[in-house]
Amino acid sequence: MMARITIKVHPRAKRSAIGGRLGEAWKLSLAAPPVDGKANDECIRFFAELMKVPKARVRIVMGLTSRSKVVEIEGVPQDELERRLSVNP
User: Fold this and answer.
1) What digits encode the pLDDT tens for the residues 1-11?
2) Can you list the alpha helix ranges (DSSP code H) found in 1-89?
3) Which of the 8 DSSP states describes residue 57?
4) How far is residue 16's CA from residue 32's CA, in Å, rounded to a whole number?
5) Is residue 78 helix, strand or coil?
6) Which residue of 11, 23, 31, 88 has the fewest CB atoms within a 10 Å radius of its CB?
7) How far apart are alpha carbons 27 and 10 in whole angstroms?
8) Domain span at residue 33?
9) How far apart are CA 71 and CA 55, in angstroms?
10) CATH code at 54?
């Protein structure tokens, strides 16, 4: 069981938060700069906390150096991820 999400990252925000859909992707504001992997670390921390799973279960599978990323969350059904995202903004 694996949930997958496409996100468009906006680093250096005041706080980390989901901001709604942008086409097929979700907008994710991150309270971290895109330097030394800090934004990627914050992205992983955000989804681990949102889905209540250990950070080790969250992986960025595409777009490590891009603003567009694909994130996988192990052990979470896709519909549960979609439900939490739509409640969160």
Assistant:
1) 999 999 999 99
2) 38-51, 78-87
3) G
4) 8
5) helix
6) 23
7) 7
8) 2-75
9) 12
10) 3.30.1200.10
Which pair of structure tokens corresponds to residue 73? 């969350």
Cβ pair 60, 43 in contact under 8 A: yes
Average of pLDDT values for 21-43? 95
The overall pTM is greater than 0.85: yes
pLDDT > 70: percent of the chain: 98
Question: How far is 40 from 89, CA to CA, in rounded Å?
Answer: 20
On whether the CB atoms of residues 38 and 60 are closer than 8 A, the answer is no
How many domains does the structure of the chain reveal? Answer: 1
Residue whose token pair is 């906390």: 49
The verdict on residue 12 lying in a domain is yes
DSSP state of 56: G
* pLDDT number for residue 89: 52
- The H or E element containing residue 17 is strand 17-22
Alpha-carbon span 45 to 67, nearest angstrom: 17
